Amino acid sequence: xxxxxxxxxxxxxxxxxxxxxxxxxxxxxxxxxxxxxxxxxxxxxxxxxxxxxxxxxxxxxxxxxxxxxxxxxxxxxxxxxxxxxxxxxxxxxxxxxxxxxxxxxxxxxxxxxxxxxxxxxxxxxxxxxxxxxxxxxxxxxxxxxxxxxxxxxxxxxxxxxxxxxxxxxxxxxxxxxxxxxxxxxxxxxxxxxxxxxxxxxxxxxxxxxxxxxxxxxxxxxxxxxxxxxxxxxxxx
Length: 236
Description:
The structure is a single chain. The chain is of the alpha+beta class. It has one domain (2-225). It is built from 7 helices and 7 strands. The strands form 2 sheets. It has a 5-stranded antiparallel sheet with strand order 3-4-5-6-7. It has a two-stranded antiparallel sheet with strand order 1-2.
């Protein structure tokens, strides 16, 4: 529980901070976008698309950022296959705390006690910051970037950001698999219950589309982002 508590505190601190130091020690400001540190940290993790890199595994990134109270997702993470889920989760939390604290330049001395609530209570607090950051990131990095055909790296980052956002909005139905297809600029998401959704740059607009042939547009990504929960950014 202490690890969930510290991670939530780190997410909050990052939300209200501008800029961070990257892996080389170079300070990265929010820039003209006005991005806060949480947005920059998530973007850095989502860009970790080289196999074997720390946050290449989507489920691992999703667990640490969006669904810290959903321990079942840990069994989907290939790393540390011989560890029990709880032990594995704690190792991931500790490494993530070191990662984000290193980027932001601080360490928390506070520890968890029962007055801080349950894992779900803490995760919901963290999701308020994460959902707002991911909503803005999706607008900037998905809707705000022109899609280039057959560009896997750019599409992969977009798909991963959108997958995190979908999980933050429905944590009990978290995304456990992301399939990326540059041929039709699409991202297919499989949730906890093995239900699937597909998003694509379809007729010049990012939208959820059907699996029909030919596909139909179901809802634009822009309209989906208007339904963000919570509707207002946290202020404290």
